[in-house]
Amino acid sequence: MTQQTSQPDVTAALLIIGNEILSGRTKDANLPFLAEKLNGIGVRLREARVVPDIEAEIIDAVNALRARYDYVFTTGGIGPTHDDITSECIAKAFGVPLERHPEAVRRLQEHYQTDQINEARLRMANVPAGGILVDNPISKAPGYQIGNVFVLAGVPMIMQGMVDNLLPRLKGGAPMLSRTVSCALAEGTLAEGLEAVQNRYPAIEIGSYPYLRQRQYGVSLVLRGTVETLLDEATDAVAALVRDLGGEPEVTVGTT
Amino acid sequence: MTQQTSQPDVTAALLIIGNEILSGRTKDANLPFLAEKLNGIGVRLREARVVPDIEAEIIDAVNALRARYDYVFTTGGIGPTHDDITSECIAKAFGVPLERHPEAVRRLQEHYQTDQINEARLRMANVPAGGILVDNPISKAPGYQIGNVFVLAGVPMIMQGMVDNLLPRLKGGAPMLSRTVSCALAEGTLAEGLEAVQNRYPAIEIGSYPYLRQRQYGVSLVLRGTVETLLDEATDAVAALVRDLGGEPEVTVGTT
């Protein structure tokens, strides 16, 4: 059996800010995007929170998460309207003033015609003191990094552009790899054998996710880890278990 | 102007349990479903958290949320496999033993053939002492309520059936109503006037959500509240603002 080493995880949390998510109106699409990008550079998304547009809630969540994880990403609340209060909250969370960032102002002035620039739009250039801009390739108004917190837009296309731009700043570990063994067996049939495989491979995380497809129950047995040889050994063990129980394992390779 | 009364909100939180959400593999669909159902009975979803399948994380989150909100809903981790640890965690969070619930056992025995019943499946009948079952109309293994916490399945079809079954147990307030004023104006153009409307109607929550559709920017101005006359007054004010700025407001009625 391959040597099972465990390295300290580099961890991250996502703070989703916005009443529109909690009301059920808008379905968050940023978590899966961020998670997959982080997997690729060996950073593990370990927690996510969704909070409303309420100052105290945002400040408390930012401070709880930044103390606990290597990186924190926030999405939402950095636009020009009254309900966009994220930057004020981040400044208060860090105990620093909120300042108009000259380079951010310059980018907005370049993007908007002179008669379009107003106080509301200039609010998007407010950055907590010490913040380092994150480029916005879509609508120009930048996000920023302060300490280990990255403050990003909520609109997925803009958020995604910002994430692509900030990724080189992150220091990750070994990329997360995954294997999925799908079969038409029931979870309850597999459970005992699967636990035995999990116990043999503590460095591999094994999850069991049932699905119902065309009135047929099935299960995706997902193995995640950073050491490929070990992951493949454990995957072979799960596939063998499925065959022993009369199933037909179908193995796919991924990163989630 | 209609009298603006504010009544104490009935609040809820959602705790999404599962590595598969944080890895980006599975996109949560339960939050929007729950939020909309709660809106309809006057309960506000005020926070959501996603935590991994780690005992201490689940216990801490359950205890933080149940102390703070009127209702807490958990999804995920109540199946038969080794990674399903929610019920053990809920029992520890409440400081009560985890017991095999006779009625839950009966339902599983009715659902499965005798040779299919095994220890893994019977784990799904483990309920923290004092728990009250929540019917599962799909795959029979029940969820349960303990105190103000409702423990539900993660598979959306099963979760949804459970929510429909538990709703009559909840005591809500006035249902949340919403109006959406869409137009092709930019947020930055609307911001000042929109804030003025918000200040005139503090009991109405006004959110501004930009979108990019067929290369055309637009914005959905969403008004939420429980008093319909007030909501309609504020909506008229926002629509008038849009027209004043040269836009064409399109008003739709909703609950999110």
UniProtKB/TrEMBL annotation, chains A, B:
InterPro entries: CinA, FLAD1_M, MoaB/Mog-like_dom_sf, MoaB/Mog_dom. Coiled coil: none annotated. Residues 13-174 form the MoaB/Mog domain. PANTHER family: NICOTINAMIDE-NUCLEOTIDE AMIDOHYDROLASE PNCC, NMN AMIDOHYDROLASE-LIKE PROTEIN YFAY. This is Molybdenum cofactor biosynthesis protein. It comes from Skermanella aerolata.
